[in-house]
């Protein structure tokens, strides 16, 4: 595990983007998994800047979204698909047929999930998965108690997530109660994982995730078992860790 602590939001965004850019430069046809959320927005802005400055080519990159709300797809600006398109996919030279979204308006969502797993495998597997974390330790829509062998599937959206996203969905009604998400096994199968967290409200869960026992009660704690985990934090999110082993 590598832990990087950044001093402010600007360096958090830049350092996180540098990590993703490095992956793309080392392997231009990288397969990336993307989380939506407040944490990653500035990071994606930074990636767009690198692309506009001619420093980053997404022409051979394949992208998978991490999760999606049931019934919310591209037409709904609160959907993960629409947000990722607005923040990154539509802003860089990603080929449309290399962008894999979860079609959560389909009637047979179990099939969508099964096909998503097949698409990930067919693309060669995810090289780098970008993750945020919920204050209860959830990753994607994998809430506390989720089995570590879970794969892409239909789930109930946690109450904490529903509360956090209420404002975002206010124009289209209430936050959907169900969603589709990559499972914990799907996430752990990625070649590398980049866990991003900022803000004091994430400090407690970051400590539990990185230093506590590996336990389904804290889904993100499973990431301790990943051989190539990089964690990028701001000082606030890192304040409950012993910083002697962190790099800057
Ligand atoms: C959610 C999403 C995750 C996201 C996490 C953190 O509910 N399903 O994919 O990473 O919460 O979100 P934020 O970055 O807004 O704190």
Shape: globular
Helix content: 25-40%
Average pLDDT works out at 95
How do the helices and strands follow one another from N- to C-terminus?
A: EHEHEEHEHEEHHEHEHE
Number of domains: 1
Structural class: alpha/beta
Low-confidence stretches: none
CATH secondary-structure class:
Alpha Beta
How is the largest sheet built, in terms of strand order? 1-10-9-6-2-3-5
Total strand count, please?
Answer: 10
Distance between the termini: 14 Å
**How many DSSP helices?**
8
Largest sheet: 7 strands, parallel
CATH architecture: 3-Layer(aba) Sandwich
The small molecules bound here are: 2-amino-2-deoxy-6-O-phosphono-alpha-D-glucopyranose
CATH topology: Rossmann fold
The fraction of residues assigned to DSSP E strands is 15-25%
Work out the radius of gyration: 17 Å
Task: Summarize it.
The chain is α/β, with parallel strands linked by helices and 248 residues long. It is built from eight helices and ten strands.
Key features?
binds 2-amino-2-deoxy-6-O-phosphono-alpha-D-glucopyranose, 248 residues, 3-stranded antiparallel beta sheet, globular, single chain, alpha/beta, 7-stranded parallel beta sheet, Rossmann fold
Q: Could you explain how this protein is built, in words?
A:
- By secondary structure, the protein is α/β, with parallel strands linked by helices.
- The chain has one domain: 3-Layer(aba) Sandwich (Rossmann fold), CATH 3.40.50.1360.
- It is built from 8 helices and 10 strands.
- It has helices spanning 9-26, 38-52, 80-87, 109-122, 159-164, 166-169, 184-188, 203-211, and strands at 2-6, 31-34, 62-65, 67-69, 99-100, 128-131, 153-156, 178-181, 192-197, 229-234.
- Strands 1-10-9-6-2-3-5 form a 7-stranded parallel sheet, sandwiched between helices.
- The chain is globular, with a radius of gyration of 17 Å.
- The chain starts with a strand and ends in a 14-residue tail after the last strand.
- Residues 35-39, 66-67, 132-134, 140-141, 161 line the site of 2-amino-2-deoxy-6-O-phosphono-alpha-D-glucopyranose.
């Amino acid at each position: 595990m590598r832990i990087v602590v950044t001093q402010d939001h600007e360096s958090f965004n830049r350092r996180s983007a540098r990590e993703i850019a490095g992956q793309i430069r080392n392997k231009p046809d990288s397969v990336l998994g993307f989380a939506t959320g407040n944490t990653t927005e500035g990071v994606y802005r930074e990636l767009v800047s690198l692309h506009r400055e001619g420093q980053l080519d997404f022409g051979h990159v394949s992208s998978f979204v991490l999760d999606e709300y049931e019934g919310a797809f591209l037409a709904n600006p609160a959907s993960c698909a629409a947000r990722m398109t607005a923040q990154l996919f539509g802003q860089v030279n990603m080929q449309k047929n290399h962008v894999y979204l979860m079609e959560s308006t389909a009637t047979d969502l179990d099939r969508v999930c099964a096909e998503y797993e097949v698409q990930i495998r067919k693309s060669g597997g995810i090289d780098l998965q970008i993750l945020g974390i919920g204050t209860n330790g959830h990753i994607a829509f994998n809430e506390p108690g989720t089995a570590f062998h879970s794969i892409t599937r239909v789930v109930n959206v946690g109450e904490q997530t529903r509360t956090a996203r209420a404002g975002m969905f206010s124009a289209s009604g209430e936050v959907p109660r169900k969603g589709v998400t990559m499972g914990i096994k799907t996430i752990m199968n990625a070649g590398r994982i980049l866990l991003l967290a900022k803000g004091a409200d994430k400090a407690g869960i970051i400590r539990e995730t990185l230093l506590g026992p590996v336990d389904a009660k804290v889904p993100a704690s499973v990431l301790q078992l990943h051989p190539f985990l990089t964690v990028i934090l701001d000082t606030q999110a890192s304040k409950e860790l012993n910083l002697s082993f962190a790099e800057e």
